[in-house]
Amino acid sequence: MNHQKIYEAIIKKAKYENRVKLRKNQKKYIYYEKHHIIPKCIKGTDDKDNLVLLTAREHYVCHKLLTHIYSNVRGLWLTLKRFKHSKKHTLYIVTSRDYVNIKEALSLIPAKSHYQIWLEKYGKEEADKRYKSQNEKIKKTMTGVIYSKERREKSAKGHMGIEMSKGSSIKKSKSMTGKHKGEHRSKKIRDKISKSMLGNKNAKKL
User: Fold this and answer.
1) What are phi and psi for residue 147, nearest 5 degrees?
2) DSSP result, 20-41
């Protein structure tokens, strides 16, 4: 089966019909969905020339075809998976066999970090910029977070009386024993640890 040829035929037909997205109360209303001809996960854009209106069934079929054309692109399999969980999932008719294929493909294709995706899509300069911006946002959300007395007490009570099984206790003990034994720390790291331990009555001198 020539998946590329079938895909191009569906796109060509949709473009030839000059489809228009109408409201439900308008005459000749047909439900359409916007589709990126070249998917965004493989550097497709939001330009008008790269967009086409497809019926729900055509949209699903096209994304299914794309997973055959670009079988190693994780983003396309994830998009196909979203059809199953869409509020309009009954329009797409996602078979159990399709779902199994999606799950198997996702288990074989390793996930990429946001930075890797940005690097491939925008280049190093923009990827570094977005990475820095993301870290700054995370720091802002975490800095100066003060929990109420009620929440702290509730959290403390939630952990009181929790007993670890003997097996888990031994496992944890083994994982911690000698964790840093023989490890040489630089002066910079030792100073950093010392500062973090200041005011801690239980802290031992390094």
Assistant:
1) -85, 145
2) ----TTSTT----EEEESS-GG
Q: Helix 74-85 to helix 96-108 angle, to the nearest 10 degrees?
A: 140
Give pLDDT tens digits for 83-131: 888 877 778 778 888 889 999 998 888 887 878 877 877 788 888 888 8
Kindly state the tokens that stand for 194: 């010392």
pLDDT tens-place string over residues 148-163: 778 777 777 766 666 6
Residues 6 or more apart in contact with residue 196 via CB below 8 angstroms: none
Residue 119: other Cβ atoms inside 10 A: 18
Residue with tokens 């075809």: 65
> Do the domain assignments include residue 196?
no
What's the domain range around 72? 3-108
- Together in a domain, 131 and 61: no
Indicate the pTM of the whole model.
0.58
**In this structure, which amino acid lies at residue 71?**
S
Burial annotation 166-197 (CB, 10 A radius, 16+ → b, else e): eeeeeeeeeeeeeeeeeeeeeeeeeeeeeeee
**Bridge partners, residue 35, by sequence:** 52
